[in-house]
Write a structure and sequence with these properties.
Mean pLDDT: 95
Strand content: 15-25%
Shape: globular
CATH superfamily of one domain: NAD(P)-binding Rossmann-like Domain
Number of strands: 11
Order of helices and strands: EHEHEHEHHEHHEEHEEHEHEHHH
Bound molecules: serine
Structural class: alpha/beta
CATH architecture of one domain: 3-Layer(aba) Sandwich
Low-confidence stretches: none
Radius of gyration: 20 Å
Number of helices: 13
Distance between the termini: 50 Å
CATH topology of one domain: Rossmann fold
Helix content: 40-55%
């Protein structure tokens, strides 16, 4: 008998840390993590097992298919927006081919189980692209189906995978004799910039906010790579994890789409600085703009519209900008750094 499991790819990343912390408390399933490197002890304590390997290794995925009964896949492994610009071809391989490999695995599992395998895919606000700054500044919250003209490799990869996931769920091999539709229950959220008190992002364009906060707590000076008046949507990690679990658990009948926006607050980089100074008054935070990274952030919407998520699966963030600091970031970061 194969063992029933939840598979989490990219488990060493920030979302992997947040997700495993919550899922491991629930306990009525086994969790298998997959990543390029062995996980740290925090994750090792919370998973039933882990596999060190690459999502591009088809033999490895074949072994997982043979060994386990996979009821859900959280496919988190990806190369983020800044890093992807340095190696677009590798980013495409990991972000697109890797995702298709996991969707293939879900289809094979769905076929052998005779039911749909849940597949969560974290998409991103990077799927949007607004090149005209006047238009960007004067557009209100952007809904799911507008301005999908990504300006980064990462954004192109995410937008394509939203579509290919929908295809695998609804139309896969639609003309073949044995229809293969309804074998993958694909669900995706376009996440804004995420801020965790426990982990640091790497290779993203929204990294300035978490970097600024953690640097202040460590008493390190921080030079922010975007302008002080830069605005983009952010959210705390606990809110993002809650949203992922709300969507994954929502009855299929309540979902009007497969890809949803979620958002909580859109402060300026200067707002972050001022807020941090109100807690760490001697923090040294300066601005030295990296024009290329600025252009990436400037192509993303200032605010996004998450009405569909609110209506379909009762999404509502717990933290706003003030409570994110007051109730989560500051207390947890002070604990982390022994302050
Ligand atoms: N946080 C991501 C990045 O900066 C956006 O999804 O790449």
């Amino acid at each position: 008998m194969r063992k029933p499991i939840i598979l989490i790819t990219g488990i060493n990343g920030e979302i992997g840390h947040g997700l495993v912390e919550y899922l491991s408390h629930k306990g009525n399933y086994s969790i298998i993590g997959l990543d390029l490197k062995p996980p740290n002890s925090f994750i090792q304590k919370r998973v039933d097992d882990y596999v060190v390997g690459n999502i591009l290794d088809k033999d490895l995925l074949e072994r997982l298919n043979a060994e386990f009964e996979i009821s859900a896949i959280f496919h988190l492994a990806a190369i983020l927006s800044t890093r992807a610009e340095f190696s677009p071809r590798i980013a495409h391989d990991v972000n697109v081919t890797g995702t298709i490999n996991l969707l293939d695995l879900a289809i094979e599992q769905g076929q052998s189980l005779g039911r749909a395998v849940k597949f969560f895919f974290p998409s991103s606000i990077a799927v949007y692209g607004i090149s005209n700054s006047n238009l960007r500044d004067n557009t209100g919250p952007v809904p799911e189906d507008q301005f999908r003209y990504p300006k980064t490799m990462y954004g192109c990869n995410k937008l394509y995978c939203e579509n290919i996931g929908t295809y695998f769920a609804r139309y896969y091999k639609r003309l073949s004799v044995e229809s293969s539709t309804n074998l993958v229950d694909f669900r995706s959220i376009r996440l804004p910039g995420l801020i965790s008190a426990h982990t640091m992002p790497s290779g993203g364009s929204s990294d300035y906010a978490p970097e600024m906060i953690h640097a202040a707590a460590r008493k390190n000076p921080y030079t922010c790579f975007v302008r002080e008046d830069t605005v983009m949507p952010f959210m705390t990690m606990p809110d993002a994890i809650r949203a992922i679990l709300l969507l994954v658990k929502a009855p299929e009948s309540s979902l009007s789409r497969m890809v949803y926006n979620i958002t909580s607050f859109s402060p300026t980089a200067g707002d972050f600085r001022n807020k941090i100074l109100s807690y760490f008054s001697d923090a040294k935070i300066t601005f030295e703009v990296n024009d290329k990274r600025q252009a990436i952030v400037d192509s993303w919407p200032r605010e996004i519209d998450d009405t569909s998520a609110r209506e379909d699966w009762n999404w509502k963030p717990i933290h706003n900008f003030n409570s994110a600091f007051e109730d989560y970031l500051i207390p947890e970061i002070c604990k982390k750094y022994g302050l």
